[in-house]
Amino acid sequence: MPVTVRTFGSAGEAASALSSDRTARYFGGGTLVMRALNEGDVSISSIVRANDVALRRIEAAGPRVTIGAGVTFAKILAERDLAFLHAPARSIGGPAVRNMGTVGGNLFAPNPYGDFTVALLALDATVSVQGGFGARDLPIDEFLQSRERQAGNLVLSVSCPRPASSDAFRYRKITRIRPKGASVITLAAHVPMSGGRVLGARLALGSMAPMPIRARAAERALEGRPLDTSTITAAASAITEGTSPVDDALGSAWYRREIIGVHLRRLLSDQE
Ligand SMILES: Cc1cc2nc3c(=O)[nH]c(=O)nc-3n(C[C@H](O)[C@H](O)[C@H](O)COP(=O)(O)OP(=O)(O)OC[C@H]3O[C@@H](n4cnc5c(N)ncnc54)[C@H](O)[C@@H]3O)c2cc1C
To answer: Which of 140, 199, 256, 271 could form a disulfide with 245 if both were Cys (CB 3.0 to 4.6 A apart)?
Structure first.
């Protein structure tokens, strides 16, 4: 089936084209869209692209960083001010995928992908989207819950607070093949400390549900407590609550449930 490719100079025009055609798909880096097209996905009859430089902009100097949806993981790795996001960016695919794959595309990536989104979820990111209704900002939790419905909208950018210290944000991806393997589980933890206690804990998990989720019971186990052995043990005991792990060739749901507490404990106690 022929596929029409339409390239627009502005994000606004691309958003209008997307929202007016159900069979249109936005083309970020194309690492997933091209694969779908090559595999003969007939639900896509039109590709929408935008050359708008705003989609590739990074504002990283202040306490809140904003990253255009079209920014690639290679660009993030080249940006010293985004050092706190280097571990999740580096964990994605190999160099070719990091050169093409974008932050916007990662928000829509199905399991076992979506690693960068796990990091953004732990960091309480905001997603800026533009649809037929105009532009608006959504908390990432809300964006993910409505992800299916967001398909006709254009993601413009994501923004998140810079962690107060390098210790406050931690990330770990468990794979069978290093360094390029897909996720068995992905964990991200934002654990800011105040007066020796965790204040505002957010834990996010990948491959533990159909899309990245918060581990709210484990967050409650951390909140207001010192990050010591007994707190970490309590969080690890609660980590599977509310999860429905993926059961795939990389690992069974049972296996994922068994190992996630071990990896959370290592992540929070700074062990390899
Ligand atoms: C070999 C290989 C290895 C990979 N390894 C990993 C990995 O380790 N971890 C991981 O997380 N991912 C991995 N991926 C998946 C993928 O490369 C990444 O998730 C990447 O971030 C997707 O971004 P993209 O720009 O290429 O998406 P695209 O293919 O361009 O798009 C993916 C989806 O998102 C939509 N989309 C893209 N941008 C926007 C936007 N701005 N607004 C609205 N919709 C948008 C598209 O319409 C499409 O539905 C891998 C892929 C391959 C092929």
So the answer is: 256
